[in-house]
Specification:
The complex is a heterodimer of chains A (269) and B (498). Chain A is α/β, with parallel strands linked by helices and 269 residues long. Chain A has 11 helices and 10 strands. Chain A has helices at 5-8, 50-57, 80-86, 103-109, 119-123, 127-145, 165-178, 195-210, 223-229, 247-252, 254-260, and strands spanning 12-21, 24-34, 39-43, 65-70, 73-74, 88-90, 183-187, 215-219, 232-237, 240-245. Chain A has a 6-stranded mixed sheet with strand order 6-7-8-3-9-10, sandwiched between helices. Chain A is globular. Chain B has 498 residues and is mainly α. In chain B, strands 1-2 form a two-stranded antiparallel sheet. A two-stranded antiparallel sheet of chain B has the order 3-6. In chain B, strands 4-5 form a two-stranded antiparallel sheet. Chain B folds into 2 domains: 34-326; 332-484, no CATH class. Classes of the chains: A alpha/beta (269), B mainly alpha (498). At the A-B interface, helix 3, helix 4, helix 5, helix 6 and helix 7 of A face helix 1, helix 9, helix 10, helix 11 and helix 12 of B. The complex binds adenosine-5'-triphosphate and magnesium ion. Adenosine-5'-triphosphate binds next to helix 2 of chain A.
């Protein structure tokens, strides 16, 4: 797992990706790569195409042109659940939890692709079905444990809708990690959080890499988060990559400043 | 990949943001009260055993064939509702083709065990084959759901139902695309009759409903337990996930399309068994059985009980079928009608004085109306009370009471007078609308003639027309349910966060 992975080929490699809706080009010839164990942030003004990029990677849309490679193998054309099982998991900008299922069930449901028992085995409660159930239960508790007391104990059996907003964001991350991905796509994980929670999320993302071993591609408007953890930052505008480099390089890039001017004060926040 | 559990370090992290609010969430979610709570706390196996016990006790305690027949019918509906619940309640798919599976299975069973093709297979051969074939049909009919969803899927499924009805009704002279001569496949409007009963270990089931009570109850017992386990396992969880949010489910590695197919097919399997029982029990299958009204009835059962809850669905099937059965006889229907009306008033009218005043008002209104009509138009009060064969609302005290309180025109159905009931119907609807528009004492005052008017329509028109009354009743039940408990009696209210 270690050793040759880092230099040889990127974990996620997007080549000349393009997508347009009708006449509107949303992603335009985008090249982007994420190395194993890296944290890469994507920034850009509203409507720049950041979420669309995630939708392309996870198979919600099919690119008009270009290729998406995970560990050298193309993901284009695969159904979303296959892409997830290959090792790509995401969170959603507008939360999409299974609201009327319990916290733990949300996390257990995401392990569907890692269990094999057939419906007949479940009906008869044959050994494999029982063993898998025990395993994913333990795994779910472990993943929820990642969030410390935020998602611990008594909260496990509560419906997801009863969680506070910040905890629902955390649960989405827990659910994504439970599908055992290699790369995590986080769409604005700090949106709507207060400064303390934002700080916590920043630390958590770092911990996901260090302890969880995930590679992370992050969309974030909060520059504190981006500055704190990114190995590399990529700025998008109108679906085109306008800058790439360290946070300081990108934040001071004139094209980036121009792209943000008038649209939002995010870069100076 | 091993991760250190951080649960040892809460002491170091600050308490800011720990939401006590969430901790109390369980208390804030209002649980169901009374009976429902009791049902909630009892282990499901006990509830199931109790239900099966009661159902099987009926044929042991009574020899009244009609009662045992209703018992068997009800159990068959319970089985159907459990099957429909898989797609509708658990996976959230609008499975409007469900009746096709039931009908297909009944016909297939009939053709494999009757003189129609002169095939008389043994039960242990036919039933598994029919179930397997129906599961397969489930997969095939659900295939459009791979591309379609929502309204489109619903329409396509309805189309299948219509096709099936056409095929069964006209299948007595079927011509396979002109390739062969015409050929009797389904027996046409008169269906397939003289079907062999079940034979299990040399024991011939029936004729008559008694044995089928046991067969169906055993089926329910097995299916409910198997489904209970599936619901708690990976497949059940995935179904719930795709009901909640198919897109998120798909992106979390759940193959949504396959699971939709599976849900429809598993439900179809139950319909397959129920269809076999149907064929053997009634010893005949007829195209009229497997039509739209049946679909509505089974859906109503699932929705009334609470889609997604096994126990709820069973309860819904029992309530709806027993109610519909009672409505068949005018005299029994009268009790249901007045009981429903009084229960409705009891539930809605809080200060009991108001209720008392209202009942008194309705009573006086009726007597006065009777006297006035009697004085002006004698024939208007000369009619008889709608009767059942033996009854105590058509003779004696209750009959006298109704006769003096209600206006019962003679010959309501003659050419001139049949309109009376129809006019009254329209007037009652206008009154109901007016009641919803008015506020305060005016509403209560108007409620008096409204209630009496509804009773008038009931006594002069509806009571004798059970083909109209039964669907009407279902509709009313569903409307009331939607207003009071949208999730059904035992269903969990689903929460959306905006
Ligand atoms: N399915 C679609 N059909 C048509 N247009 C779309 C679709 N999805 C996205 N778009 C358009 O693509 C553009 C980029 O949207 P996207 O959601 O990717 O922006 P974003 O960078 O994530 O913005 P934000 O920061 O507000 O989340 C927008 O103009 C949006 O209207
Ligand atoms: Mg976005």
């Amino acid at each position: 797992m270690s050793g040759n992975g880092a230099q040889k080929q990127p974990l996620l490699d997007l080549r000349g990706l393009s997508l347009s809706f009708g006449g509107l080009t949303v992603i335009d010839g985008l090249d982007l790569h994420v190395d194993e164990h890296e944290i890469v942030s994507v920034i850009g003004p509203n409507g720049a195409g950041k979420t669309t990029l995630f939708n392309l990677i996870t198979g919600a849309y099919r690119p008009d042109e270009g290729d998406i490679l995970l560990d050298g193998e193309s993901l284009v054309g695969l159904p979303s659940h296959k892409i997830n099982q290959r090792g790509v998991a995401r969170t959603f900008q507008t939360l999409r939890l299974f609201l009327n299922m319990t916290v733990k069930e949300n996390v257990m449901a995401a392990q569907y692709g890692h269990t094999r028992s057939s419906i007949v085995e479940q009906m008869l409660q044959l050994p494999r079905a029982r063993r898998e159930e025990r395993e994913i239960n333990a795994f779910a508790e472990e993943k929820l444990g990642f969030f410390g007391e935020r998602l611990m104990g008594y909260r496990w059996n509560q419906p997801a809708y009863s969680l506070s907003y910040a905890n629902r964001r955390r649960l989405e991350i827990a659910r994504a990690t439970a599908s055992r991905p290699r790369i995590l796509l986080l769409d604005e994980p700090a949106a709507g959080m207060n400064p303390v929670e934002t700080h916590e999320i920043t630390e958590l993302i770092g911990k996901l890499r260090e302890e969880g071993g995930f590679t992370i591609l992050l969309i974030e408007h909060d520059m504190h988060v981006v500055e704190g953890i990114s190995d590399r930052v990529i700025a998008l505008d109108h679906g085109v990559k306008i800058a790439e480099g360290s946070f300081d390089q990108v934040a001071t890039n004139p094209r980036v400043v121009e792209a943000y001017l008038g649209t939002s004060a995010a870069v100076t926040k | 990949m091993s991760t250190e559990s951080p649960s040892q370090q809460p002491a170091t992290s600050p308490q800011i943001g720990v939401d006590e609010w969430v901790q109390r969430s369980g208390e804030r979610i209002a649980g169901p009260g009374g009976l429902l709570r009791l049902a909630d706390r009892t282990p499901p196996v006990l509830l199931l055993a109790a239900f099966i016990g009661i159902a099987c006790a009926v044929p042991l305690l009574t020899s009244n064939g009609y009662v045992i027949g209703v018992d068997a019918d009800t159990l068959l509906y319970v089985l159907l509702a459990i099957g429909l619940n898989v797609a509708v309640g658990w996976a959230g798919i609008l499975d409007l083709g469900y009746v096709v599976f039931y009908g297909f299975a009944a016909y297939l069973f009939a053709e494999l065990s009757s003189a129609h093709y002169d095939i008389h297979w043994a039960t242990w051969q036919t039933v598994p084959l029919v179930v397997a074939a129906t599961v397969l049909l489930g997969f095939v009919l659900a295939l459009p759901s791979r591309r379609l969803n929502g309204d489109y899927l619903a329409i396509v499924m309805l189309f299948f139902l219509q096709m099936f009805n056409n095929f069964t009704t006209n299948g007595y002279a079927w011509n396979w695309l002109g390739l062969s001569g015409s050929h009797d496949v389904t027996g046409g409007p008169t269906g397939v009759t003289n079907i062999d009963p079940f034979r299990i270990f040399g024991h011939v089931m029936g004729p008559g409903p008694r044995d089928y009570v046991f067969v169906t109850a055993a089926g329910i017992f097995v299916v409910a337990i198997l489904f209970h386990y599936v619901n708690r396992s990976r497949t059940g969880r995935a179904w719930r996930a795709l009901r909640e949010d198919p897109l998120a489910a798909e992106m979390m590695g759940i193959p949504v399309k396959w699971l939709s197919l599976l849900a429809v097919a598993v439900g179809a399997g139950v319909a397959g068994f129920a269809g076999s029982v149907n064929g053997a029990y009634y010893q005949g299958v007829f195209p009229d059985t497997f039509m739209f009204p049946l679909l509505i009835t089974v859906y109503a059962m699932v929705i009334l009980g609470g889609a997604g809850s096994l126990g709820g669905v069973v309860f819904g099937a029992v309530v709806v079928n027993v109610l519909l059965e009672i409505l068949r006889t005018p005299d029994h229907a009268r009790w249901v009608f007045y009981a429903a009306m009084i229960l409705g008033l009891l539930a809605k009218l809080r200060p009991w004085r108001l209720l008392g005043a209202l009942v008194a008002g309705v009573a006086v209104f009726g007597v006065v109306a009777h006297e006035i009509v009697g004085a002006v138009w004698a024939r208007g009060v000369g009619g008889p009370i709608a009767t059942g064969p033996t009854s105590f609302t058509t003779h004696g005290f209750w009959a006298t009471l109704i006769r003096h309180w209600m206006v019962l025109p003679k010959n309501t159905y003659t050419a001139e007078d049949y309109r009376i009931g129809n006019y009254a119907f329209v007037i009652v609807i206008v009154l109901v609308l007016a009641c919803t528009a008015l506020k305060g004492w005016k509403r209560w005052a108007l409620l008096v003639p409204t209630i009496w008017g509804a009773c008038f329509v009931w006594e002069t028109v509806l009571i004798e027309q059970n083909p109209v009354v039964r669907p009407l009743f279902l509709g009313v039940i569903l409307i009331v349910l939607m207003a009071t408990r949208p999730a059904g009696l035992f269903g969990k209210t689903r929460v959306e966060i905006v």
